[in-house]
Design goal:
With 497 residues, the chain is an alpha+beta fold. The protein folds into three domains: 85 residues, Winged helix-like DNA-binding domain superfamily/Winged helix DNA-binding domain (Arc Repressor Mutant, subunit A, Orthogonal Bundle); 107 residues; 179 residues, Bira Bifunctional Protein, Domain 2 (BirA Bifunctional Protein, domain 2, 2-Layer Sandwich), CATH 3.30.930.10. The longest helix is centred in the first third of the chain and has 18 residues. The chain is flat and about 100 Å long. The chain binds phenylalanine. Phenylalanine binds next to strand 16 and strand 17.
Length: 497
């Protein structure tokens, strides 16, 4: 191994007394360095080269904390109360007497507690004790402990363990610190090196214009770069991981020939649900699951649409379906809500372009009354899309989703039968992650009850997937909340997407 100048300097210093075991302070003195970083750095390199051996010993030191400093100057609480008890006349040795003597309420309680633990008793309101000598001795040893620390921190070993244990249990009196001290010693190989072979090398660490203008560089030795050396990660700005993920998904769909669509957060129940043939009695429509608005409480929906949905829901219109039966409630369909899925965007897109073939996608926020936990948020995002064209079919849908996930880095995708009121067949999409199949979304072919009232005559491949779920996979998180916590360090450390 090629040694640098710092390593050479440290070796030369140590070869001055080859058998010695060196402390940090010895090495600083012998090398003339003022910063211990040099000793630590050169020492580690020398140890890796097998020339030096480093031994570490852990030790614990005790020092006075804030309350301890006070006790050192004005006495421990139990000592002060004990002294007062010795001087007070018997009739005054009561709680009242203690207050009268100037002890604060917050001191009296704990102070008496400490003394009780030492053998003081309260009899008919008065403090009494039997073995005064042993109480005084215990207090004296505590006091001498505090006094001896007043001059500075000391090794834990120089004290009685019980005493340390006692003070650790009291708030703010002492602080215990773990320290590791190192010693450096030459190994056999280290001792065998000749000091004379350790001349400083002239190495060029930086290539400057001045250097290149001269001739010196031709024979110079260049300092090698260690590309594996740990270095600080520059903390520059970066997009939020969710934003970066959205951009990536966007470019994958654009690359696959899809166009992007958008829609409003506020929608009518009609477009969000009735258009999708979700029965008006469906549990997901209740106030426990959906955020209905009071301002506006309702939204105008085209009467022709209301008529069509009523007819489809009640008896199937001319779709060949029998419908759900019952009476369709138009007021219910006009209720305003926060969209519960982005399927409302694709459905409205078809309604506006019933005879234009399209492949569109959207990434948008949706709202559901969820209790926040590890896997749920009341606001999250969905990745939605449709293929609306004469030959759209199920294999096309599955291939599209597989291609999408493969491009996102998840080549193992499987589908399973599922149920949604608006698709038939319905398919659940799962990806393989760390050996487990995780459900990421729903999809299927829209039912005629959905497409016919919109004026479409073609099949529609449709899907809606959770963005946060995918983000958790990609970022390796197991709590969805981590995505939205404003913890800059964590965000900084998340992988660049
Ligand atoms: N809208 C469904 C959901 O919220 C997903 C889905 C979209 C299912 C399109 C089928 C077709 O989970």
């Amino acid at each position: 191994m090629e040694l640098g100048n710092n390593e050479r300097r440290m070796l030369r210093a140590m070869l001055g007394a080859p058998a010695r075991s060196w402390l940090l302070s010895d090495l600083l003195e012998a090398t003339g360095w003022s910063d211990q970083v040099h000793v630590a750095g050169a020492g580690t390199t020398l140890a890796e080269a097998g020339l030096v051996e480093i031994s570490e010993t852990a030790s614990r030191t005790v020092s006075l904390a804030g309350e301890g400093e006070k006790a050192a100057s004005s006495g421990l609480l139990e000592a002060r109360i004990w002294d007062w008890m010795q001087d007070a006349v018997a009739a005054d040795r009561t709680m009242q007497g203690l207050f009268a003597a100037g002890f604060e309420r917050h001191e009296a309680g704990p102070g008496v507690g400490l003394l009780k633990a030492l053998g003081v008793r309260v009899e008919s309101g008065s403090f009494v004790s039997d073995d005064d000598a042993s109480i005084a001795a215990a207090i004296a040893s505590r006091t001498s402990f505090i006094t001896s620390l007043a001059s500075g921190r000391q090794s834990e070993e120089s004290f009685d363990l019980d005493l340390i244990g006692h003070f650790r249990g009291r708030k703010g009196l002492i602080a215990i610190e773990e320290t590791t001290s190192r010693e450096w010693q030459l190994t056999k190989a280290g001792k065998a090196i000749k000091s004379n072979d350790l001349k400083d090398v002239e190495q060029i660490g930086q290539v400057t214009p001045e250097l290149l203008q001269g001739e010196d560089w031709k024979n110079a030795e260049f300092k090698p770069f260690d590309v594996n050396a740990p270095a600080p990660i520059p903390a520059g700005g970066r997009p939020h991981p969710m934003q970066a993920l959205i951009e990536r998904i966007r470019s994958v769909f654009l690359e696959m020939g899809f166009s992007e669509i958008e829609g409003d957060y506020v929608q009518s129940a009609g477009w969000n649900m009735d258009a999708l043939y979700i029965p008006q009695s469906h549990p997901a429509r209740t106030m426990q699951d959906t955020f209905y608005l009071t301002e506006p409480a309702s939204i105008d929906v085209e009467p022709t649409m209301l008529d069509l949905w009523a007819s489809v829901h009640e008896h199937g219109h001319d779709t060949g379906s029998r419908g759900w039966g019952g009476t369709f409630d138009r007021e219910e369909a006009c209720k305003a809500l926060l969209r519960t899925h982005t399927t409302v965007n694709t459905i409205r897109h078809i309604a506006q372009n019933p005879d234009v073939p399209c492949r569109v996608f959207g990434i948008g926020r949706v709202f559901r009354q969820e209790t926040i936990d590890r896997t749920h948020l009341p606001e999250f995002h969905q990745i939605e899309g449709i293929i609306h064209e004469p030959d759209a079919n199920l294999p096309m849908l599955i291939t599209t989703l597989k291609t999408f996930y493969a491009k996102m880095g998840y080549p193992d995708v499987r589908v399973r039968p599922a149920y949604f009121p608006y698709t038939e067949p319905s398919v659940e999409v799962e990806v393989l992650w760390r050996g487990e199949w995780l459900e990421l979304g729903g999809s299927g072919i829209f039912r005629p009850e959905v497409t016919e009232p919109l004026g479409s005559e073609w099949p529609v491949c449709a899907w809606g997937m959770g963005l946060e779920r995918l983000a958790m996979l990609i970022l390796g998180l197991d709590d969805i909340r981590e995505l939205y916590q404003p913890d800059l360090t964590r965000l900084q450390d998340m992988p660049i997407l």
